[in-house]
Amino acid sequence: MPPQADCHISIEKLDAIAAAAAGSDDAPTGAGRRAIRVTFQDLNYVVTNSANRKAKLSLLTGVSGALLPGELSALLGPSGSGKTTLLDVLAGRKTVGQVQGSILFGGRPPSQTFLRRYTGYVEQFDTLLSNLTPCEMLSYTAAMKNPRSESQAAQQARVETIITQLMLTSCRDVIIGNVLERGISGGQAKRVNIGLALVTNPRILFLDECTSGLDSYSANEVMSVVKSLVPTGITVCTTIHSPTPYAFALLDRITILLRGRVVYWGLNGDHSLRYFQQACPDAVPMGSTHSMQSASEWIVDLTTKADRDGRALEFASLYEKSSQRQENEALLAAQLADSGPVSATTLAELGVKRATATPFWFGILQLLKHRGLKDLRDPAWLLPRIMDKLIVALLIMTLYWGIGDDLSSVNANNISAVLFMWAILPGFSASSYVPAIVLERGLFVRERSDGLYRTITYLCFKLAEEVFLALLISLPFSCLVFFPLQMQGSWALFWAVYFLTTIIGIALAYFIAALAPNMDAANAAVPAYVVTLLFFVGMLIRQDDMPSYWGWYLYIDFLHFAWGALVINQYEGKGTTVYGGREVLEFYNLDGRSRWALLGYESLFFIAFFTLAWLALAFKRHQKR
Ligand SMILES: Nc1ncnc2c1ncn2[C@@H]1O[C@H](COP(=O)(O)OP(=O)(O)OP(=O)(O)O)[C@@H](O)[C@H]1O
């Protein structure tokens, strides 16, 4: 049984609400909250044609309309008609191309900061954290998006209200899951996404294909929930590809697009049906293909067929000349001429200066609390970071047991080899940190666009949790190797080299992951780069034996400084019967150098890779839209 149409509001009642809204840009709505009105006129959007980079392509042409308070607005049209494009343009989410025309929120042009802070955007594809529950995901987003002045109790109360409002009570504490680990259903995931957009009480909610991929029952549930938001003072606009008859009946005002042009904008229901029946008298009558055909199906079929038959321009021109268009022009002109009073709250929101509500340090603390602690308890996160290092530490311990105090020339090769392995292995294990960035790319882009945090906050959080774990595991693992092998010199330096090389590897992996187009490319690039570093460590070929044209590479090889510091630590000040530690250091061109200075030099690589990772995350756009 489909969900009860308990949120149906009659067209007449909505007309009354819209009429009341027309006098003010801050129209009061059912729940006493003020909804905002969005008007757009003569929108054109042009991009470089991806099939022919020399040509321009117009994706929207002369699009006008409005999203009115108290109404559920929808953008309809066949695939490729420009629905998502128009939604993105209205929400200010286009990163490429040129937009022309006027878009006004509450009668004023909105800033990017306002759009990030006070509008909600629900993407077509879910961007959720699989190891959190819906309640945890909502609480985390609420903590990140709402001002610090708001109490935790108030935030939690809002989360609970959203859970009830979005009918998520039954899955409140179920893990979200992913393709490998079963969690909540697709319809529930879609509603969690809507909830994320709602936690900050947005003034406008944009939804892209919020029913795609759902069975009709779940699609109807989602649409009921969306409809129920309208009376709470949120201006709602959704794109919808093929609405079920029930979902179609919930829409108040629809815009139908064909090839980026409007072929209808107006009230839904009888009004839209009458328009198409009058505009297209030669169309196959409704119900003639099958007796159960609904009005929505008939309109969708009619416009899709027109698109397929190459009649998009003809339909757009019919609308241009129609009385419907004239009425719409008058409606828009009246609204633009009399934008009415704007409340102080709306004015303050429109003038907002920061896209994020929380400061840098508070954002990091919240990320660590809501996501970091969860990761540290998640075996799927922990094991790939620990097991490879543990296995290698045990192997080194058992294979090289007790060789560290034999400083004879016969043993020099073994010692420099084990130090070589100890220095390079943390660099090699850097690949295991690639998924942390690549798999989360969609989530990161969405959360940054939503104003949850800035790039630097996200990067510092990701590094902080990795560095914390690296610190925890490097201490026992370095003991497992240093003492059983009876290595010489300082344990602190032995550990510090391992720890530092691990975190340089993490920053390197983050940089490459942020640049690489996908996981395969990043996974191939990290070891390929690290292999080039091995040749210049100074052990496989001595520094003195390197051709001069390759000598420079050694200075940008952090593993060279790691290994050099370890060799000096082992041999400095030691004498042997055959030759002294000094001769070993001379052999490797390390005599007279300070192990701590080499360590300090190596630490500069962390700063360099951190900066590169930050720049790549901030400026490399993988998702052009
Ligand atoms: N740079 C580009 N070069 C060529 N075509 C482009 C470019 N950018 C977008 N398009 C095309 O513009 C059209 C509009 O895309 P949009 O995503 O808005 O359609 P849509 O109506 O939302 O479709 P769907 O229902 O399938 O999501 C599509 O045909 C898309 O392929």
UniProtKB/TrEMBL annotation:
GO terms for molecular function: ABC-type transporter activity; ATP binding; ATP hydrolysis activity. It is a multi-pass membrane protein. Keywords: ATP-binding, Membrane, Nucleotide-binding, Transmembrane, Transmembrane helix, Transport. SMART domains: AAA. Residues 38-284 form the ABC transporter domain. One of its GO terms (cellular component) is membrane. The chain crosses the membrane at residues 386-403, 415-438, 467-485, 492-515, 521-540, 552-571, 596-619. The keyword Ion transport does not apply. It holds the Pfam family ABC2_membrane. InterPro entries: AAA+_ATPase (IPR003593), ABC2_TM (IPR013525), ABC_transporter-like_ATP-bd (IPR003439), ABC_transporter-like_CS (IPR017871), ABCG_transporters (IPR050352), P-loop_NTPase (IPR027417). It is found in: Membrane. This is ABC transporter domain-containing protein. The lineage of its organism: Eukaryota, Viridiplantae, Chlorophyta, core chlorophytes, Trebouxiophyceae.
